């Protein structure tokens, strides 16, 4: 399987561990990632507050590059994925705007390629049976709270892959790896996003509610597929605990880190040892497995 790959700004910087684990997971599952040549920022959370045309042209430029390759596009960052899907939908419905955008980016774009998230790639394109067949170290005993955040499944008319209120694709992937995901109430609650820096008394409280909810439901970890969510739940943990007067030690993993580890990679090879909240110890407590492929 070959797919165009858009790392975006975060997977090479603040979410480098996610980038490492996406590459490892793709290698394990036989996916050829073809990084977009000369990719550029998608505009993420700021462009649409500056210029309507800019907010559409920035993601459209990258989509046009994928279209030139004749490939669908993998965008692991949830914010990038959401911007791409919103742009695709908008331009497929507005021929006049499509022509305007094509002129702005200086290249032809027909909005025929399709962006997929990591969850769509794993649970949909690859499939749960194929993932389970690669497992060498089942995550038996791990009880993660699967956290989607805002951008992966909402709005449903943009994403359309999973239930926007009660998604289950991440839980199914975790079960294929041998884990036992918990049922909880904060799967799609906002982590606070950039409010953690602009309005910390609001944003940090929102992140704290997610952590508290996961702990109360008996989770021993949180798994996500969003760099910003990971940052707020992991890097800002000390700020959250100071604000709320709590002590929550749950590690936070990227879903691709857990896929790679279950399929035989070491925690260090996918950056688990780089997290702010100690995360390698929980993996070390899992049964070592017999080194054979499950399935």
Can you give keywords for this protein?
14 helices, 46% helix, three-stranded parallel beta sheet, Rossmann fold, 7 strands, Glutathione S-transferase Yfyf (Class Pi), Chain A, domain 2, 2 domains, alpha/beta, four-stranded parallel beta sheet, 295 residues
User: Gap between N and C termini, in Å?
Assistant: 21 Å
CATH fold label of the largest domain: Rossmann fold
Rg: 19 Å
Beta-strand content estimate: 5-15%
Largest sheet: 4 strands, parallel
What do these coordinates show?
The chain is α/β, with parallel strands linked by helices. The chain folds into 2 domains: 2-116, Glutathione S-transferase Yfyf (Class Pi), Chain A, domain 2, CATH 1.20.1050; 127-284, Rossmann fold, CATH 3.40.50.11810. It contains 14 helices and 7 strands. It has helices spanning 16-28, 52-69, 78-93, 95-105, 118-126, 128-133, 156-159, 169-176, 195-198, 200-216, 227-235, 237-244, 255-262, 280-284, and strands at 2-5, 32-35, 73-74, 115-116, 144-147, 221-224, 252-254. It has a 4-stranded parallel sheet, with helices on both faces. A 3-stranded parallel sheet has the order 5-6-7, with helices on both faces.
SSE topology:
Layout lengths: L1 E4 L10 H13 L3 E4 L16 H18 L3 E2 L3 H16 L1 H11 L9 E2 L1 H9 L1 H6 L10 E4 L8 H4 L9 H8 L18 H4 L1 H17 L4 E4 L2 H9 L1 H8 L7 E3 H8 L17 H5 L11
Parallel strand pairs: 1-2, 1-3, 3-4, 5-6, 6-7
Helix pairs in contact: 1-13, 2-3, 2-4, 5-8, 10-12
Brief write-up:
The protein is about 45% helix and about 10% strand.
